[in-house]
Amino acid sequence: MDADVLIAGGGPVGLYLAAALLQEGVTVRVFEQRQAANRHTRAIGIHPPALEALAGVQVASSMVHEGVRIRAGMAVSGGRTMGTMVFDHVSRDFPFVLALPQFRTEQLLEERVLALDPGAIVRGARVTGVTDDGGRVTAAVEAGPGATRPCGGATGALLVAADGARSVLRERLGVPVARRTYPDHYLMGDFEDGTEYGDKAVLFLEPDGIVESFPLPGGVRRWVVRLDSPAGAAAGPHDLAELVRRRTGNQPDPASNSMLSAFSVRSGIAQRTVAGRAVLLGDAAHEISPIGGQGMNLGWLGARDLAPLVCAALSGKPMGLQLRKFERNRRRAAHGARRQAEINMMLGRPLTQPLLQFRVAGIGAAAAIPAVNRWAAKRFTMQ
């Protein structure tokens, strides 16, 4: 066999699983079609349960050292702070949400994988199909320009499909997906931070729709603006900066923009995550709205739970019952994350002034009750 476990997709979830398995003496091959991490990826928030999992593969400390520790979030409306949510009690070891760009998260995970096995990652390679004979899996691997080694096929005891929301392998395995679309569209970008919010996240609840703002390393702040319709192809930093100014009074400098992205929201949950000797993981198993920052974290938690099952199965233990339990638990977690994301989006939709005042007053009243504040903080941080 080429390796015990073949992993299709070298994003944050596939790399985390590779590191977790390599630490246990399991051989892996990670096939990733990209030559390098995409510097414009959206995910930035790492929640406490995921940090605990990342500590298990010895990368959490580096991430915390480089990232921004968001210890509180503010709700603002009409220039007034309506409530503050603190994260002091959500975790003993990680009482914060860590903000770190996804490309750097991937780099740190890749460094850990390569330290464990310099030959584990095959770049410029895309897994396009799978054959399962009941005893092993064979992956069809297509080499792209700049592939780091010849491709064609690879065999292993197990294949993990971590190849994203548009998973080719999920389609090849014939796994159906329950999809939803939403009337929510966003334009977001990163600018030099000219505010006084420091390490706080801020949600601006305004009549025309929510504006979210998060600190990033290097004195950068991300702004996310909800739109009623998709942003046009011509939308640029000036457009986003003007939307932020009109709704919040803050004025990002368009010349300092370092990332700009527009997206519309959809979700999809695979009806199965285990198909013979193949397992769906991360966005291939569940695509969740980026609002709330749950998707990447959900993938890591799934990989954390899968790793010991893989190790046990490779040692010859019958794991059918445990894998079915894993599948039920991960689908339940995905449905819960989707519900939370839907609540997050609903709270950010435009309202008439009277209804907005009612909603803002309710949020302020809830934030003033310590028990409710702590409960909401735990929900927000995926505890």
Polypeptide structure, described:
Helix 1 (12-23) packs parallel to helix 7 (295-314). The model has no long low-confidence stretch (mean pLDDT 92). With 383 residues, the chain is an alpha+beta fold. 45% of the residues are buried. It is 35% helix and 28% strand.
The overall pLDDT, averaged over residues, is 92
Order of strands across the widest beta sheet?
A: 6-5-14-15-16-13-17-20
Number of DSSP-assigned strands: 20
Low-confidence stretches: none
Radius of gyration, Cα only, in angstroms? 21 Å
User: How much helicity do the residues have?
Assistant: 25-40%
Structural class: alpha+beta
Question: What is the H-and-E element order?
Answer: EHEEHHEEEEHEEEEEHEEEEHEEEEHHHH
* Alpha-carbon distance between the two ends: 39 Å
Q: Strand fraction band?
A: 25-35%
So how many helices? Answer: 10
Largest sheet: 8 strands, mixed
Structural shape: globular
Describe the structure concisely for a colleague:
The protein has an eight-stranded mixed beta sheet with strand order 6-5-14-15-16-13-17-20, sandwiched between helices. Strands 8-2-1-12-19-18 form a six-stranded mixed beta sheet.
